[in-house]
Design brief:
single chain; mainly alpha; extended
């Protein structure tokens, strides 16, 4: 997809998105402004690990 196609698709999705989620999306977009691609990728990977291994991490914390 081109940049314009992605922007258009995002705008369409945002039309039906609840306001609270819009604020979260906005906060996320602000947080990645000015960061390197490597930094953003690292953050995404860490979030994925924490989400996928939540149960294991809770057991280890006990």
């Amino acid at each position: 997809m081109s940049r314009e196609e992605v922007k258009s698709a995002i705008n369409q999705l945002l039309e039906d998105t609840p306001e609270q989620v819009l604020h979260e999306v906005f906060d996320y977009l602000q947080s990645v402004q000015g960061k390197s691609i490597q930094s953003v990728t690292l953050s995404q990977n860490l979030r994925t690990i924490l989400t996928e291994d939540k149960e294991l991490l809770e057991k280890l914390a006990k």
